[in-house]
Design a protein that fits this description.
By secondary structure, the chain is mostly helical. The protein has one domain. It contains 5 helices and no strands. It has helices at about 10-20, 20-50, 50-65, 70-85, 90-120. The radius of gyration is 15 Å and the shape is elongated.
Length: about 120
Amino acid sequence: MTEGPHDDDLHMATAVANFGSLAAAAEALALVVRIARRDMEGAERHWREGNGDDVARWVHRTRGALVLFGAPALRSLGEHLEECIATPGQAVAAYLTYRHALLAWLEKAEHELERTRAIL
């Protein structure tokens, strides 16, 4: 994998193209951030309980939402995690990497939302 979390970005231009306007893109981004943060708590619980299927479903949903905002490296990390779920030794590192990268992306998204709301 050549991309990493440091290569990832939030692409509001992609979101504007997908949603038709900056206001609609910002509204969608706010929803994705809110849901991703909420669902992360459930994923943490599923992870601790060893329920890989539910963790994989969570990763798949977040990757689907990220497509709307670019995030190619983060999506790639999620795909890698989905592939590793069945292999506990590999899954731990993949989960921690994805979780860390997703949290960083969500922080970027929150900053972008503040900036975007200031110009709307």
